[in-house]
């Protein structure tokens, strides 16, 4: 084939510059696409690695952040590739913006959950393994925090899934933040019982339990009066992990201690 005829003929003179320009744009677009995809992958890996080193970020969000970085860069790369082919990206960006707005309005509930999930990771009101009270008294141990929801496991092993948006809009009680907690115990004694003897007996019993902290000192006092009995309150401090077992054990021990001291109970 005579290439010189092709490159010096009337067709080449008419369309040669455009072919060269198109070929260069095509090659440039391919290079931008390849380099952009490589940068997107590398940036995603770097974002995951950086997020993985932060102890307060849950593993689920490490992947989530990496994906956000990757797709954001890919979007920029696509726009750059289209510009190399002479496509007016302004109108495309406007259409994409309008579509994004429409989708955002349609999925505003889901997007609010995503935003709340990100804020939960950043502000760390709780972590996996914490025992929390969220949204209308839903108590349980945090088992999973993902983009849309938080999963709890209750004391009777029931799975509770709560949308992140509801959680972040309400007070959050985290019972696992501190190493120590105050233990409040209520018990009843009958009217006519010797209150001082009841107080001394319960205080003596509390001092014998090694799981209770000597400081602050335990306090036993009258909480309130009801028609049926006098409500007493024992206040003491212990390690956080002892709360569940001690609550039931101490109430039983108080009952037997007062019964042995002939303190009438109601």
Could you characterize the architecture of this molecule?
- The protein has 266 residues and is of the alpha+beta class.
- Helices cover 55% and strands 20% of the residues.
- The strands form two sheets. The chain has a five-stranded antiparallel β-sheet with strand order 4-3-2-1-5. The protein has a three-stranded antiparallel β-sheet with strand order 6-8-7, with helices on one face.
- The longest helix is centred in the N-terminal third of the chain and has 44 residues, at 10-53.
- It starts with a helix and ends in a 6-residue tail after the last helix.
Q: Can you give keywords for this protein?
A:
266 residues; alpha+beta; 3-stranded antiparallel beta sheet; 8 helices; 8 strands; 20% strand
The tally of helices reads 8
Instruction: Give the total of beta strands.
Output: 8
Q: Report Rg.
A: 34 Å
What is the general shape?
rod-shaped
Overall residue-averaged pLDDT value? 78
User: What structural class results from the helix and strand content?
Assistant: alpha+beta
Low-confidence stretches: none
Beta-strand proportion: 15-25%
Task: State the end-to-end distance.
Answer: 111 Å
Helix content: 40-55%
Provide the succession of SSEs: HHHHHEEEEHEEHEEH
Largest sheet: 5 strands, antiparallel
Strand order of the largest sheet: 4-3-2-1-5
Summed up:
55% of the residues lie in helices and 20% in strands. It is of the alpha+beta class and 266 residues long. A hairpin with a 3-residue loop joins strand 2 and strand 3.
How do the helices and strands line up, and which of them pair or pack?
Layout (H helix, E strand, L loop, with lengths): L2 H6 L1 H44 L5 H26 L4 H18 L1 H16 L7 E4 L3 E8 L3 E5 L5 E5 H5 L3 E3 L5 E10 L5 H13 L11 E7 L4 E10 L3 H18 L6
Antiparallel strand pairs: 1-2, 1-5, 2-3, 3-4, 6-8, 7-8
